[in-house]
Design a protein that fits this description.
Radius of gyration: 25 Å
Helix content: 25-40%
Largest sheet: 4 strands, antiparallel
Strand order of the largest sheet: 1-4-5-6
Shape: elongated
Order of helices and strands: HHHHHEEEEHEEH
Low-confidence stretches: none
Number of strands: 6
Length: about 260
């Protein structure tokens, strides 16, 4: 006669199952931000590589044109003869690397021949133009690469603000108008209206276009938590925290103006 044995299979109790779920949730809460941070850093690194290559192209262009840098829309507004196009003979993929992977308007740039994630500091390579379209000489503007007095301390390219449409006219800043505002808090408003000081941040808020009345619909979020890449005239790239830019804005320090 056979010997029947009842075997008991191990199974989770409800409490044990809830404990496992809680542990998984805790691990996910720890790991996912790490992945997001790593992804953000990778994109920032790609952006830094892009802007550095563009700087090399600008330097090669200037070497071929007696120090003159590629001109921007102050002279060529509305055409594709702006500085990105000028670099194609020196950088074959100039139109690809002009797009920052973290730019909220990347698709808009890709659809345009002239849009770019990176824009010129107006103190460098941006001539002042009068009402007749003629260039006005200014002691603070340097159109000659070799004339920049402190290239290691002078910004050449910034990352464009999400609030700027990506077209041939928005390929440079208006840095000379950022400061000495009343009240001083308006300095910050002017700066972030043209450059994205926190482009590289975890959990970026997507750009929202203006409504039909022209009012911004961008969500409110802390603009001081991220960093942006900055290209200097000597070719090096530095990531500067938005908080640092804010401190300069609050103390009326015009960081865009070349030091003498």
């Amino acid at each position: 006669m056979g010997n029947n044995r009842w075997t008991r299979r191990a199974a989770f109790t409800l409490i044990e199952l809830l404990v496992v779920i809680a542990i998984i949730a805790i691990l996910a809460a720890i790991i996912f931000p790490v992945f997001a941070s790593a992804r953000a850093r990778a994109r920032q690194t790609t952006c830094a590589s892009n802007i550095r290559q563009l700087g090399l192209g600008i330097r090669m262009y200037a070497d071929d044109y007696d120090g003159i840098m590629p001109q921007n829309s102050h002279l060529y507004g509305g055409s594709d003869a702006v500085w990105v196009s000028a670099l194609v003979p020196y950088i074959a993929n100039a139109f690809q690397i002009r797009v920052c992977p973290n730019d909220q308007r990347a698709e808009e740039i890709k659809a345009s021949k002239v849009g770019t994630s990176y824009i010129f500091n107006s103190y460098v390579s941006t001539p002042r133009i009068n009402g007749a379209g003629s260039v006005i000489e200014s002691p603070d503007v340097y159109l000659d690469y070799d004339s920049v007095p402190a290239p290691a301390q002078t910004f050449l390219l910034f990352e464009a603000s999400d609030s700027l449409a990506r077209n041939s006219y928005n390929d440079h800043t208006h840095s000379d108008t950022w400061f000495d505002k009343t009240p001083v808090t308006n300095n910050w408003t002017a700066i972030v209206g043209e450059i994205e000081v926190d482009r590289h941040r975890v959990g970026a808020t997507p750009y929202l276009p203006a409504d039909l009345n022209g009012r911004s619909r961008a969500k409110d979020f802390n603009r001081l938590q991220g960093v942006a890449n900055y290209l200097y005239c000597d070719g090096h790239v530095k990531a500067i925290p938005a908080l640092k830019i804010k401190s300069w804005a609050d103390t009326n320090f015009n960081f865009a103006k070349p030091p003498k």
